[in-house]
Design brief:
five-stranded mixed beta sheet, 27 strands
């Protein structure tokens, strides 16, 4: 078959397939254009999930009449500046994108109308494209949001490519995707007002924030992620070299079941990047259960020349010039912020408790009862928001003797604290031990209920980690060193990280092309599958640039040891011992949750308790 050029209409439809996959993609491109035009107010209106109508109106700089036709021409853009020699630097992008294909791509598969009034112009002008056919510009009576602005209407999306309509989801699903796009862009720009209307109903309205860097950003995030986010997040702001990380990360006890609540931005652009997601997971790795994920909104700012934002047609992926620096900054900043949070736990734990213990009316004549989450309370029982399953007794791993564990865990010291002083500590003064499992403490304005086993387990775990950090991970030499065959590139990557692995107790050395010799392994792990371990480490280094699997295994063993050596449920504690546990929790990082991510205590404010009994 001879080689021939495709007609322009076919080229545009192919481009549309790459850029405009669904209504949400069209909304993303149009809103990004509005932001690049300097808009401070952006109104989005859709019908039938965006398949019937997408209208995006802004108060930006507008498009001059003589540039309207260029706006819908392929490879025409205002987002790239040419040098005096005519060269264009494609790696120095200061806008939301430069591909210049969004409007012509939309016009190739839909009925597109652009009405714009340029700043300083006397009137607005309209240009229309239907299925790739351009109509001449004509005057319009449209009144802009301000002195200038643009309104883009997209009707009957994909009418020119009916086959693509078969792959669309329900109108509700498409509408939710559009809402997600608008919310992500609104998070990136707190200084811009956003509104979203669907089928005549306003589903989102956000006012512009006066302080887009600090409290304004927190308020914008709370308006999108929910009012619980603001009191349960930690502020971040750290810089390494030319890279700055700012934003907010949720407390470990304020977690979700999916990663959908992790929002990542690079130079103001919402992205989904495996490197950043992996860094967030590494920072929370021993604070959350595997099926829980943190809530976070992280903003990376770095010189445009240090990141490639156009590795994907939809501009949702990025590539960093120095990925290791970016990952190290994220892990370090998050770890430092979480350690600084100390014993702090999320306020939602108390809300869950009040949600489980609430008054209700039993529909029987003359009978009122108090219920706990649809379950009856037997006399004398004290129920927590969720039951904790006791971990089974475990044998100590190799390399740790019982006397070593006793020395690390230590006996619970007695602390003499007067009641008047203890009430002003964050976790208050111990008043009672309930069912030899839970400590009840009185604070200045409420009560705290502590799970003694979970709390002491975290304290012991942090001591073990500190001991390992100070003395190094104990090693055990292999009687016969094991040779592991690998791909040559994997073997080379592992050999390059030999010093880092040795700090974790794994001593290796190159053994010819495509082979690694294992001489020593971490004593804590006992007998291990060296070949399987090295393959996992090679995968980690290839994907994340760090030997993550070995750290996870070591931390899992440390957690097991901590569980074995901590104060068990059922042990009766004296008042001084209970107060000592509370004071240690206040001084220990991450003590707001146990090694499995569950809260170690619940705080109930006196005002809320009074509401529970109808006193307020």
């Amino acid at each position: 078959m001879p080689i021939r050029r495709l007609p322009p209409e076919a080229v545009n439809r192919i481009a549309a397939g790459e850029v405009i996959e669904r209504p949400a993609a069209a909304v993303k491109e149009l809103v990004e254009n509005a932001l690049d035009a300097g808009a401070k107010r952006i109104a989005v209106r859709i019908e039938r999930g965006g398949l019937g109508l997408i209208a995006v109106e802004d108060d930006g700089g507008g498009i001059p009449r003589d540039e309207l036709a260029l706006a819908v021409e392929r490879h025409a853009t205002s987002k790239l500046a040419a040098s005096a020699s005519g060269d264009v630097d494609l790696l120095n992008i200061h806008t939301m994108g430069f591909r210049g294909e969004a409007l012509p791509s939309i016009g190739a598969v839909a009925r597109l109308a652009i009405t714009s009034k340029a700043r300083g112009a006397g009137e607005a002008w309209t240009i229309e494209v239907e299925g790739g056919q351009l109509q001449p510009a004509k005057p319009s009576a449209w009144a802009a949001l301000s002195d200038s602005g643009t309104r883009v209407e997209v009707r009957d999306l994909f009418f020119a490519t009916p086959a693509r309509l078969k792959f669309m989801k329900s109108e509700r699903a498409e509408m939710m995707a559009v809402a997600d796009v608008v919310k992500r862009l609104a998070m990136a720009r707190p200084d811009v007002a956003f509104s979203l209307e669907h089928d005549g109903r306003m589903s989102l309205r956000l006012a512009a924030e006066a302080d887009p860097e600090n409290e304004g950003r927190r308020a914008r995030l709370a308006g999108i992620l929910g009012s619980d986010f603001a009191p349960n997040c930690i502020a971040l702001d750290q810089t390494r070299d030319t890279v700055r990380l700012s934003g907010f990360a949720g407390l470990p006890t304020f977690s979700r079941g999916t990663r959908e609540h992790q929002h990542l931005f690079v130079n103001g652009r919402p992205v989904k990047d495996k490197l950043i997601v992996g860094a967030v997971r590494a920072a929370y790795q021993d604070l959350l259960a595997r099926d829980r994920h943190p809530v976070a909104a992280l903003f990376l700012d770095l010189p445009p020349s240090e990141v490639d934002v156009n590795v994907h047609p939809a501009k949702t992926e990025v590539r960093f010039r120095d990925a290791a620096l970016v990952r190290g900054l994220i892990v370090g900043a998050l770890s430092h912020a979480l350690a600084g949070a100390g014993h702090r736990a999320s306020t939602t734990t108390a809300q869950s408790a009040f949600g489980a213990i609430r008054p209700h009316y039993t529909p029987q004549p003359g009978l009122r009862a108090w219920g706990v989450a649809e379950e009856a309370i037997a006399p004398g029982d004290f129920m927590m928001p969720s039951a904790r399953v006791e971990a089974p007794e475990r044998r100590l791993p190799a390399g740790i003797e019982a006397r070593d564990l006793e020395e690390i865990a230590g006996r619970m010291p007695a602390v003499q604290v007067s009641d008047d002083d203890a009430r002003f500590f964050p976790l208050g003064a111990a008043r009672a031990q309930v069912h030899e499992t839970y400590i009840v403490a009185q604070t200045e304005d409420g009560i705290v209920i502590v799970d003694q086993h979970a709390a002491h387990e975290r304290l012991v775990y942090e001591r073990i980690k500190q001991a390992l950090a100070n003395g190094g991970v104990p090693r055990q030499g292999l009687l016969i060193p094991e040779v592991v065959e690998l791909d040559p590139s994997e073997a080379e990557a592992l050999a390059a990280r030999a010093d880092e692995l040795a700090q974790l107790g794994l001593v290796i050395e190159p053994f010819g092309p495509g082979a690694v010799l294992v001489r020593e392994t971490p004593a804590l792990l006992g007998q291990i599958d060296a070949a399987g371990m090295l393959k996992d480490l090679a995968d980690d280094i290839a994907e994340l640039g760090e030997a993550h699997a070995l750290k996870e295994k070591l931390e899992a063993v440390c957690s097991s040891i901590a569980c074995h050596g901590s104060v068990r449920a059922g042990r009766r504690l004296s008042g001084d011992e209970m107060n000592a546990l509370l004071r240690q929790m206040e001084a220990t990082p991450y003590s707001g949750q146990c090694n499995h991510g569950r809260p170690t205590y619940v705080e109930l404010k006196l005002a809320d308790i009074e509401k529970l009994f109808g006193r307020r």
